[in-house]
């Protein structure tokens, strides 16, 4: 039976949509798109037009609409889509034009079209387009069955660079499918394939098949609701975000309960599943209901108060009001503020202290909806009782990743008892299956749960173990780690031990002492005992730790501004600011083990007794999704916590097998690696065999085979038992590096080639049509579409600053100079992103070190030697780039100004504009074939110049 073609898939989807009452409209090009938009917009605004005795817009009125829609960024256009436009009619009257009905989302006009041709920097045909009120809001990219789905994602990324413009900038959602796998994502270019999602039912069962997906997701009311209500315009990053299905269902459940009952409820979504976005959208939509007076988002720690406020502000500035103190909370309750963030402590003070409660007496009967964050913690004591007793018309909803059940209840109370029934579940097993969070690699050392917390020898051994294995666990510091210990005195002893070992990594510590709030360990399930107090001298010890921190980073924190110190550690651990030196390892007792989210944290060391929700919360600090390199969260336990780990995972995953959550032990992963390498070496016994591969299909098979080894290599090397020089892995580290070089050579040869030049793609006769692959061609086509997983072969640590440090450290008169010089070039060649620049750096060293040794050494003595070196490198890059451009201009008989114009436009837009070169070639009066070949050749050389001379 033949494989279903892409055209058959496309026709089937259109037929399904027509059965769902979508109107099919044939649109060939942008002119037809504009005409159809005018008709649909008139239809959508029919009542408003009729009120003015009109049925349509005049051409000049419609032109005003198009001009209004044309301006702004993609993000600003998403706002325009949701706003009303005050159109001045020719009669002088004003009509508020609506582009999207967000309130009654079913009452929009839905159409489907296919193969719309758009002329951008390249002429492109789009597979299937869904138009809402005439605007293209959903774009569907299809690949025939058997093709890797990521090819469809890559196709859309190319469209972003080459063709999307005009009304297509209003696309809100993309859908990609190969028939058997279907995913959706927001129009947020380059967010990464990991941020594409399956659609599911409310029980988290995915609809992967295109027809099933279409029947549910493209239901007109569902799609209208998603576009109208469930796309978030993230003001902080100026991008679009769309809710995942479990977030959608959770918010819908809360809305339904608020609108149709007075019952409470809670949402059980595993830690790391995007609770903040879900709660924000719930608060926002609940606040829009007419009979709701206020929505209060209640957290149980000050740090979460400010953190949540910052995250809400990033979604929509001004959407929520924070409360710095109880007096401010009372004022907010009296104001027009619709959404308020506060802590449970402030809220308790407001309702239990006469001074405050008397001032909010009239508000106690208002319809208030309260959303409690982390409702497994501090909502079981007198605070909660006082709040419930005071407000007599309130409705409460809780969010938690680790509910309190009978098994893990501290005082006998459960989450269900306090909040009622669970409204929606999304467990850790679901999140791992969806790749929304990572699983855990748990390793155990010193198998004894009952240990002497004051055993100095044991602690020293553990500290040495952490330092010796830190680079292996964190990919040479690309990620960072937490070390959770039993108590504050133990933390202080550990810190002093680390300090005595003169570590090469940056180590800090943070803990709560009496001048700050209690850690509330019983409620968090950490069982860490008491907190430090001023009388014990621990405040002085904390200040000593802060002094070391100040010396390391040039800061000036004291125990008096502890909150600022905490916030600074938070930022450095997240590694988000390039100008902030990161903190590699942070020692904690309870802080940072709940509520702290950092994608750059991948390792947790544990010398602390943990159980149930406290254990899973702490482990979950490590499992945020980032990239292919971060394949799981690593936890190293120095106590025998295996039974506690098994109990916690069983409780919070509804009995899911442990192996679905926790990674396989090293021996099993090693066997998998051995099998992969054995099969690989049977096909490619030596690296030079790759040189004999002739056809693109043969090279593709090599790429796919070695890519599997790269992925498994990235996984196995993070295990502490892994030894690079082990001779029983099936492939030596030297063999791996040699094959890796061949792999990157093929990438360099093929990945940069223009798509339409690849085998299996039909070039158009005139202007570089980015057409779809010819289905009749063998699947060998499109090697450039393969995901080479280059992020696994690149280290964020190896950047231009790192290379400059290595060069600055050179001494051309030393005995090891040749070795150190070679190491710099080898380091760059081995890195996927920097290898194209190795020759450039080699030339720079030749000119500035080899040929100018005395001057190089003299400049090194200056205080500003490194910055001077950076300036010389920048000048060298500019000179060499100009040389490369001039040489290309001479070879192709073009004016260098044309090439420089192309490069400057690319630097600004980060998009290719081949028409600049096309215009220059017209003056040469070449034949069609020669002109096409010249264009491809010049663009290929320009891409090479961009790769070589672009530095971040």
Layout of SSEs?
Layout: H1 6-19, E1 23-24, H2 30-44, H3 46-51, H4 59-70, H5 74-82, E2 84-88, E3 94-98, E4 110-119, E5 123-132, E6 135-142, H6 150-162, E7 173-177, E8 182-186, H7 210-217, H8 220-229, E9 231-234, E10 239-242, H9 245-260, E11 265-269, H10 275-287, E12 294-299, H11 302-315, H12 326-334, E13 339-343, H13 344-352, H14 354-357, E14 368-372, H15 382-390, E15 394-400, H16 415-419, E16 422-426, H17 428-433, E17 440-444, H18 456-473, E18 480-485, H19 488-500, E19 507-510, H20 521-524, H21 538-553, H22 562-574, E20 585-588, E21 601-607, H23 612-619, E22 633-637, H24 642-652, H25 666-683, H26 696-716, H27 733-750, H28 800-808, H29 817-830, H30 838-850, H31 853-860, H32 865-892, H33 896-909, H34 915-922, H35 928-949
Parallel strand pairs: 1-4, 6-7, 11-15, 11-16, 12-13, 12-14, 14-15, 17-22, 18-20, 18-21, 19-20, 21-22
Antiparallel strand pairs: 2-3, 4-5, 5-6, 7-8, 9-10
Helix pairs in contact: 1-7, 9-10, 12-13, 13-15, 18-19, 19-21, 23-24, 25-26, 26-27, 29-30, 32-35, 34-35
